[in-house]
Every structure is written in structure tokens, then in C-alpha cells.
Amino acid sequence: MARSTPTSGGLLDRAFVATELTGPDAWSASHDSGPGSEELGAGMLYYALAYALRAEVCVCLGSGGGFVPRLMRQAQRDLDLAPSRTILVDGADQVPGDKRAIWGSPDWTAPDSWFRTRYPEVEIVLSLTADAHRELFLPNRIAIDYLHIDADHHFEGVRLDFDLFAPLVEPDGVITLHDSSNRREPCGVPRLVEELRRDGAYSVVEFPVRYGTAIVKRNPG
Ligand SMILES: C[S@@+](CCC(N)C(=O)[O-])C[C@H]1O[C@@H](n2cnc3c(N)ncnc32)[C@H](O)[C@@H]1O
Q1: Where are the alpha helices (DSSP H) in the chain?
Q2: Which residue has the least CA distance to atom 11 on ligand 1?
Q3: Confidence band for 30, pLDDT divided at 50, 70 and 90
Q4: pLDDT for position 4
Q5: Which amino acid residue places its CA nearest to atom 1 of ligand 1?
Q6: Relative to the CA of 179, which of 102, 141, 204, 205 has its CA 20 to 30 Å away?
Q7: Which domain holds residue 47?
């Protein structure tokens, strides 16, 4: 699409988006952005939620290229939010091989990777989500303001991640689910969305961006 000439700098620094937020990250395409893109796609939602909520503790479960944690952290940076932390949990090589073959592996595990050198303050936890829950989150009583779930997409996996981590989210906090409209087998996120809607404890709003992003919020009471 042809770009109009902005009369001001615009809300977005397009060059910054392309070099620091999308950069070489191929996984950003799963959020309707793309490597080197000036457009953030669903990334704008992740940034806006962290920013608008002034989310002091952001947690991302699973990330191939660090796209969501970058946007969470960038919102905290732009707000000068201190203290604040963004925690990325990813099992990487600990994920069973058959699941790795389907859902992929992170490209940032090297400490000198593009993502980790640009956002060194994102706390990396190289663990399966259930282990991180038991060994890090529970003993340290970590309360989450904004949680993004994008790890094991099998139904049992995403249901487990939701059941373990949603109770750690503050009453006013939010959760986003990636692949909420991805109905290709064996993706179980749409089934989780259906169950959450049926159970009634949470409100769910789904956005038709690429494979779908659902925003989930606990109902009062
Ligand atoms: C499909 S990729 C995420 C792709 C993506 N939409 C993005 O933004 O990068 C899933 C990630 O979750 C991780 N993962 C899968 N199962 C996991 C588990 N049980 N615990 C922790 N991480 C897991 C994988 O290592 C991978 O990096």
C-alpha cells in the first residue's frame, strides 16, 4: 500500500520497527508482520496491552524469534516503567522431538543472538513451562500483569499452560493466546477458546489477525 507522507513523525518510528522489532525474525510473520517489515501486525496488540496496562510483569510462554517479548519489553522501556520485568519461558531443546518438528524451535538460544543482544534485560528461562511454573513462578510468588501463551499448541499442552499460569495473573491482568483460530491439526488453541467461552469464568475477544490472537480476561467475582 502507498504510504502517505506524514505531517509529523507519526506514532510509529517505521525504521525502528523494521530494524529493532521485526529485523531478521522470520517468526514475526506468524503475527502478520514479517522480517524487516515496518508493520507490526498483531504486535501492535501486544505492545498496546503492555503499555496501556502499565504491565510491570510480562510473561511470554514460547517464542520462536522473541517478537512478543520484544514488544512487551519495548512498552516497558517506552514507559520508563521501573521496576518492571519481561520473562520469556521456552523449553527449546527440552521440548520432545516430535513436538519440535511441528511447532518449531527458538532461533535466539545463543547469548549473542540478534534478539538477546538487543533486549538483554528480557529474562530468559530455558525450561519447559510446567517446570518453570513449579521451580520459578510458584516459589517466588511471581504475579503476572500480562501473560502471552504460545508454547505447546497441542490441546493438552495449551490447556495445561492456561491452567498453570492463568491463576498467577492479577485480577486486572490480561492473557493473550496465539493461534486462536488456527484449525489445522493438531492445533488445540481454538478448542481452548471454545471451552473458556463455555465455562464463563473468562471473557474472550478474538482478533482475526493471521492465525488469530485472543485476548482473555477473568470476569469479576
Ligand atoms: C510455535 S513456536 C512459537 C511461534 C510463534 N508464533 C512466535 O511468536 O515465535 C513455539 C515455541 O514454544 C516452545 N515450546 C513448545 N512447547 C513448550 C513447552 N512445553 N514448554 C516450553 N516451551 C515450549 C518451542 O521451543 C518454540 O520456541
Answers
A1: 14-16, 43-52, 67-78, 97-103, 114-118, 129-132, 155-165, 189-199
A2: 62
A3: very high
A4: 60
A5: 103
A6: 141
A7: 40-218
Whole-angstrom distance, CA of residue 64 vs CA of residue 184: 19
pLDDT in tens, 51-109: 999 999 999 999 999 999 999 999 999 999 999 999 999 999 999 999 999 989 999 99
Residue 5, domain member (yes or no): no
Decide: 62 in ligand 1 pocket, CB within 6 A.
yes
Residue 210 falls within a domain, yes or no? yes
Is 169 part of a structural domain of the chain? yes
Between CA 161 and CA 156 the distance in angstroms is 9
Minimal-distance CA residue to ligand 1 atom 9: 64
pTM listed for this prediction: 0.96
Q: Which residue CA neighbors atom 26 of ligand 1 most closely?
A: 105
- 16 lies in some domain: no
* Ligand 1 atom closest to residue 157's alpha carbon, by position in its atom list: 19
Task: Decide: 106 in ligand 1 pocket, CB within 6 A.
Answer: yes
